[in-house]
Specification:
By secondary structure, the protein is of the alpha/beta class. 40% of the residues lie in helices and 15% in strands. It has twelve helices and eight strands. Strands 3-4-2-5-1-6-7-8 form an eight-stranded mixed beta sheet, sandwiched between helices. Helix 1 (15-28) crosses helix 12. It binds adenosine-5'-triphosphate (ATP) and magnesium ion (MG).
């Protein structure tokens, strides 16, 4: 099983939109996929129609996070074949404390996810926007940390913070994979940055996710763009992004 985290310390940059669309494309390509919603806001869970009443374990408890109880009963099916979900819960706002109490090296999430590899080929983590102890666990668990970057200076600064953090914590820079998100080519700054990517964006994905109404309409449909507007530029861009990531994530 490969683990793809969609992460940025910055909020509202298209993490959840990317996590949903990529997980759905992965599942459609035949990979048994599970999305773990680590954000107490629960946006990804909502897009995938998670209904807390359906979950046998209604709220996550400390025992699961400490590894004393199996994660299995929390897994939900979604409207899409091949795509399962571990929903978020408001209680997961305590995750930082629970994970830290279980042990002090940030491997707890990786260990919790390990049994999922029996059933799934891909784990997608939708991450909350914070640089916390949970984030350390995410960086330790992920094969790739996909970072949506809006083409603005502030967003680039957030990426540089992350690159510095990786350096100072001896994490491999190659694990970080930035991509342009919410790009509006009518804006001069967006065009300039995309056409001449600054140094931290040298290895940026070729696929650029446009600022598009189709992505906003995911909220009306509670579904990935591919399912209700497959000919849109946004659907095409997510497909292109998946095509770039798939070879890495399908490697043995
Ligand atoms: N490419 C896009 N074009 C237009 N709107 C977008 C795009 N991507 C995301 N949005 C909209 O922007 C808002 C934030 O998107 P999203 O929830 O994916 O960001 P996020 O980084 O996960 O936010 P948070 O940090 O709060 O978790 C949502 O209303 C979403 O519909
Ligand atoms: Mg989000």
């Amino acid at each position: 099983m490969k683990t793809l985290a969609v992460y940025n310390v910055k909020g509202g940059v298209g993490k959840t939109a990317a996590a949903i669309n990529l997980a759905s494309l992965a599942a459609a390509s035949g990979l048994p996929t599970i999305l773990w919603d680590l954000d107490p806001q629960g946006g990804a869970s909502w897009y995938l129609h998670a209904d807390r009443a359906k979950s046998p374990a209604k709220s996550p408890d400390k025992a699961i996070w400490r590894g004393d109880k199996p994660l299995g009963p929390r897994i939900l099916e979604t409207p899409q074949a091949n795509l399962h979900l571990i929903p978020a819960d408001l209680d997961s706002r305590h995750l930082d404390t629970w994970l830290r109490k279980s042990e002090d090296d940030p491997q707890a999430l990786k260990r919790l996810a390990q049994p999922l590899s029996e059933q799934y080929a891909l784990l997608v983590l939708d991450c909350p926007p914070s640089l916390s102890y949970l984030a350390d666990n995410i960086f330790a668990a992920a094969d790739r940390v996909l970072v949506p970057v809006v083409p603005t200076h502030l967003s680039l600064r957030a990426l540089m913070t992350l690159i510095d953090y990786f350096k100072s914590h001896d994490l491999p820079r190659s694990r970080l994979q930035p991509f342009w998100s919410m790009a509006d080519r009518r804006r001069l700054l967006h065009r300039m940055l995309i056409e001449q990517p600054p140094k931290p964006m040298r290895d940026v994905c070729r696929a650029v996710i446009p600022y598009a109404a189709a992505v906003e309409r995911m909220g009306e449909h509670r579904a990935p763009v591919e399912s209700f507007d497959p000919t849109s530029a946004a659907a095409e861009a997510y497909r292109a992004l998946w095509q770039e990531l798939a070879p890495v994530l399908k490697q043995p």
